[in-house]
Amino acid sequence: MSLVDQFRPRLLAEPPDRTLHDDYHLTDNHAPIEALAAMRAAVLIPVIARDVSLGGPTLLFTRRTERLARHSGQVSFPGGRTDPSDLTPVETALRETMEETGIDPSFVTVAGYLDRYLTGTGFDIQPVVGVLSDGFALARNEAEVAEIFEVPLSFLADPANRQRRTREFAGRQRSFYSITYGAHEIWGATAAIVVNLADRLKEPFSP
Q1: Which of 36, 37, 134, 152 is the most buried (most CB within 10 A)?
Q2: How far apart are CA 79 and CA 75, in angstroms?
Q3: How far apart are CA 12 and CA 207, in angstroms?
Q4: Are 7 and 112 in contact (CB under 8 A)?
Protein backbone atom coordinates (compact mmCIF):
# COMPACT_ATOMS: atom_id res chain seq x y z
CA MET A 1 0.00 0.00 0.00
CA SER A 2 1.37 3.40 -0.95
CA LEU A 3 2.04 6.12 1.60
CA VAL A 4 -0.72 8.25 0.08
CA ASP A 5 -3.23 5.40 0.48
CA GLN A 6 -2.20 4.98 4.11
CA PHE A 7 -2.62 8.68 4.86
CA ARG A 8 -5.94 9.35 3.12
CA PRO A 9 -8.30 7.44 5.47
CA ARG A 10 -6.82 9.28 8.47
CA LEU A 11 -7.17 12.82 7.08
CA LEU A 12 -10.01 15.15 6.18
CA ALA A 13 -11.09 14.66 2.56
CA GLU A 14 -12.10 18.33 2.16
CA PRO A 15 -10.90 21.57 3.77
CA PRO A 16 -13.04 22.29 6.87
CA ASP A 17 -15.37 25.27 6.53
CA ARG A 18 -14.51 26.75 9.92
CA THR A 19 -11.64 27.00 12.38
CA LEU A 20 -11.98 24.40 15.11
CA HIS A 21 -8.61 24.72 16.84
CA ASP A 22 -6.06 27.27 17.91
CA ASP A 23 -2.77 26.77 19.64
CA TYR A 24 -3.44 29.35 22.32
CA HIS A 25 -6.77 28.15 23.74
CA LEU A 26 -8.54 31.44 23.12
CA THR A 27 -11.73 31.91 25.09
CA ASP A 28 -15.16 31.72 23.46
CA ASN A 29 -15.42 35.49 23.87
CA HIS A 30 -12.28 36.15 21.86
CA ALA A 31 -12.06 33.37 19.25
CA PRO A 32 -14.94 34.37 16.92
CA ILE A 33 -13.82 38.00 16.73
CA GLU A 34 -10.19 37.11 16.09
CA ALA A 35 -11.14 34.45 13.54
CA LEU A 36 -13.21 36.92 11.53
CA ALA A 37 -10.30 39.36 11.41
CA ALA A 38 -7.65 36.71 10.65
CA MET A 39 -5.86 36.52 7.33
CA ARG A 40 -6.42 33.27 5.43
CA ALA A 41 -3.33 31.20 4.70
CA ALA A 42 -2.33 27.65 3.81
CA VAL A 43 0.73 25.51 4.40
CA LEU A 44 1.90 22.27 2.84
CA ILE A 45 2.97 19.44 5.12
CA PRO A 46 5.42 17.70 2.78
CA VAL A 47 5.74 13.98 3.55
CA ILE A 48 8.76 12.15 2.15
CA ALA A 49 8.72 8.36 1.89
CA ARG A 50 12.01 7.14 3.35
CA ASP A 51 13.08 3.53 3.82
CA VAL A 52 12.21 1.99 7.17
CA SER A 53 15.90 1.26 7.74
CA LEU A 54 16.49 5.03 7.53
CA GLY A 55 13.73 5.83 10.03
CA GLY A 56 10.67 5.75 7.80
CA PRO A 57 8.68 8.73 6.47
CA THR A 58 9.87 12.25 7.24
CA LEU A 59 8.29 15.70 7.21
CA LEU A 60 10.03 18.58 5.47
CA PHE A 61 10.37 21.91 7.29
CA THR A 62 11.84 25.30 6.51
CA ARG A 63 13.61 27.75 8.81
CA ARG A 64 12.80 31.33 7.94
CA THR A 65 15.55 33.91 7.49
CA GLU A 66 16.23 36.50 10.17
CA ARG A 67 15.48 39.37 7.77
CA LEU A 68 11.75 38.65 7.45
CA ALA A 69 9.32 41.01 9.17
CA ARG A 70 7.06 38.19 10.46
CA HIS A 71 8.17 35.05 12.31
CA SER A 72 11.84 35.59 11.44
CA GLY A 73 14.12 32.68 12.29
CA GLN A 74 11.23 30.35 13.12
CA VAL A 75 10.70 26.82 11.88
CA SER A 76 7.61 26.41 9.73
CA PHE A 77 6.03 24.42 6.94
CA PRO A 78 6.26 25.98 3.48
CA GLY A 79 3.24 28.18 2.85
CA GLY A 80 1.82 31.64 3.28
CA ARG A 81 -1.11 33.95 2.89
CA THR A 82 -3.83 33.32 0.33
CA ASP A 83 -3.70 35.44 -2.82
CA PRO A 84 -6.98 36.69 -4.37
CA SER A 85 -6.23 34.50 -7.41
CA ASP A 86 -5.99 31.31 -5.32
CA LEU A 87 -9.19 29.31 -5.74
CA THR A 88 -8.37 26.69 -3.09
CA PRO A 89 -6.02 26.16 -0.12
CA VAL A 90 -4.14 23.62 -2.25
CA GLU A 91 -3.32 26.34 -4.79
CA THR A 92 -1.98 28.57 -2.02
CA ALA A 93 0.07 25.79 -0.41
CA LEU A 94 1.59 24.55 -3.68
CA ARG A 95 2.35 28.04 -4.99
CA GLU A 96 4.06 29.10 -1.78
CA THR A 97 5.95 25.81 -1.54
CA MET A 98 7.28 26.30 -5.06
CA GLU A 99 8.32 29.88 -4.25
CA GLU A 100 10.07 28.96 -1.00
CA THR A 101 11.61 25.55 -1.70
CA GLY A 102 11.53 25.09 -5.48
CA ILE A 103 9.45 21.90 -5.20
CA ASP A 104 7.35 21.68 -8.35
CA PRO A 105 3.62 20.99 -7.74
CA SER A 106 3.80 18.02 -10.12
CA PHE A 107 5.80 16.16 -7.45
CA VAL A 108 3.10 16.63 -4.77
CA THR A 109 0.14 14.27 -4.31
CA VAL A 110 -2.41 15.75 -1.93
CA ALA A 111 -3.46 13.15 0.65
CA GLY A 112 -5.92 15.30 2.63
CA TYR A 113 -6.34 18.11 5.12
CA LEU A 114 -5.96 18.82 8.83
CA ASP A 115 -8.00 21.10 11.06
CA ARG A 116 -7.61 24.81 10.42
CA TYR A 117 -5.56 26.73 12.97
CA LEU A 118 -5.98 30.27 14.23
CA THR A 119 -2.68 31.83 15.30
CA GLY A 120 -2.13 34.52 17.86
CA THR A 121 -0.51 36.65 15.13
CA GLY A 122 -3.71 36.81 13.10
CA PHE A 123 -3.52 33.99 10.54
CA ASP A 124 -6.20 31.38 9.83
CA ILE A 125 -4.09 28.50 8.48
CA GLN A 126 -5.31 25.55 6.45
CA PRO A 127 -2.77 22.69 6.53
CA VAL A 128 -2.60 20.54 3.39
CA VAL A 129 -0.87 17.15 3.63
CA GLY A 130 1.05 16.20 0.49
CA VAL A 131 3.29 13.23 -0.27
CA LEU A 132 6.36 14.04 -2.38
CA SER A 133 7.22 11.68 -5.21
CA ASP A 134 10.76 10.61 -6.08
CA GLY A 135 12.78 13.05 -8.14
CA PHE A 136 11.73 16.34 -6.54
CA ALA A 137 14.44 18.98 -6.35
CA LEU A 138 15.03 21.75 -3.83
CA ALA A 139 15.88 25.32 -4.82
CA ARG A 140 15.79 27.37 -1.63
CA ASN A 141 14.54 30.97 -1.83
CA GLU A 142 17.49 32.57 -0.04
CA ALA A 143 15.55 35.76 0.74
CA GLU A 144 12.93 33.88 2.75
CA VAL A 145 14.35 30.49 3.72
CA ALA A 146 17.55 29.99 5.68
CA GLU A 147 17.40 26.20 5.77
CA ILE A 148 15.33 23.22 4.61
CA PHE A 149 15.49 20.05 6.69
CA GLU A 150 13.66 16.79 7.42
CA VAL A 151 12.45 15.28 10.69
CA PRO A 152 11.36 11.63 11.04
CA LEU A 153 7.61 11.32 11.46
CA SER A 154 8.17 8.68 14.14
CA PHE A 155 10.08 11.24 16.23
CA LEU A 156 7.39 13.90 15.80
CA ALA A 157 4.60 11.46 16.64
CA ASP A 158 6.16 10.39 19.95
CA PRO A 159 4.53 12.36 22.82
CA ALA A 160 7.77 12.03 24.79
CA ASN A 161 9.44 14.42 22.33
CA ARG A 162 7.05 17.33 22.87
CA GLN A 163 6.60 19.80 25.72
CA ARG A 164 3.87 22.22 26.68
CA ARG A 165 5.09 25.74 27.44
CA THR A 166 3.46 29.02 28.40
CA ARG A 167 4.44 32.58 27.48
CA GLU A 168 2.81 35.97 27.60
CA PHE A 169 1.93 37.40 24.17
CA ALA A 170 0.28 40.82 23.85
CA GLY A 171 -0.66 40.80 27.51
CA ARG A 172 -2.27 37.34 27.45
CA GLN A 173 -0.97 34.01 28.69
CA ARG A 174 -0.83 31.52 25.84
CA SER A 175 0.09 27.86 25.94
CA PHE A 176 1.84 26.12 23.05
CA TYR A 177 3.67 22.95 22.06
CA SER A 178 7.43 22.82 21.57
CA ILE A 179 9.43 20.03 19.90
CA THR A 180 13.22 20.08 19.85
CA TYR A 181 15.03 18.16 17.11
CA GLY A 182 18.78 18.65 17.06
CA ALA A 183 19.42 22.38 16.82
CA HIS A 184 15.84 23.12 15.75
CA GLU A 185 12.95 24.19 17.96
CA ILE A 186 9.56 23.58 16.38
CA TRP A 187 6.94 25.48 18.36
CA GLY A 188 3.70 27.43 18.27
CA ALA A 189 1.27 26.84 15.41
CA THR A 190 3.73 24.63 13.49
CA ALA A 191 4.17 22.28 16.45
CA ALA A 192 0.40 22.27 17.05
CA ILE A 193 -0.20 21.24 13.44
CA VAL A 194 2.36 18.44 13.90
CA VAL A 195 0.49 17.22 16.99
CA ASN A 196 -2.82 17.37 15.11
CA LEU A 197 -1.30 15.21 12.37
CA ALA A 198 0.22 12.79 14.91
CA ASP A 199 -3.15 12.36 16.61
CA ARG A 200 -4.60 11.21 13.29
CA LEU A 201 -1.74 8.79 12.61
CA LYS A 202 -1.71 6.82 15.85
CA GLU A 203 -1.80 3.42 14.14
CA PRO A 204 1.59 2.36 12.73
CA PHE A 205 2.18 2.45 8.99
CA SER A 206 2.83 -0.63 6.91
CA PRO A 207 6.44 -1.17 5.83
Answers
A1: 152
A2: 12
A3: 23
A4: yes
* Contact between residue 46 and residue 77 where contact means Cβ atoms under 8 Å apart: yes
- The answer to whether residue 187 is domain-embedded is yes
CATH classification at residue 93: 3.90.79.10
Alpha carbon distances (Å) from 120 to 25, 26, 63, 148, 168:
10, 9, 19, 25, 11
Rounded Cα–Cα distance for residues 65 and 128 (Å)? 23
Query: What spatial distance separates the first Cα and last Cα of the chain, rounded to whole Å?
Result: 9
Is 205 within a domain?
Answer: no
Encode pLDDT of 2-19 as tens digits.
899 999 999 999 998 866
Distance CA(73)–CA(70), nearest Å, equals 9
Q: Are strands 39-48 and 58-64 parallel, antiparallel or unpaired?
A: antiparallel
Give me the domain span that covers residue 25.
3-200
Q: How far apart are CA 132 and CA 9, in angstroms?
A: 18
206 domain residue, yes or no: no
The number of residues in the chain equals 207
What is the phi/psi pair of residue 7, to 5°? -75, -45
How are beta strands 117-118 and 21-22 bridged, if at all?
parallel
Residue type, 61: F
Residue 114 placed within a domain: yes
User: Are the C-beta atoms of 106 and 55 separated by less than 8 Å?
Assistant: no
Mean pLDDT of 88-93: 96
* pTM score of the predicted model: 0.88
Q: What are phi and psi of 2, to 5 degrees?
A: -70, 160
Domain count, the chain: 1
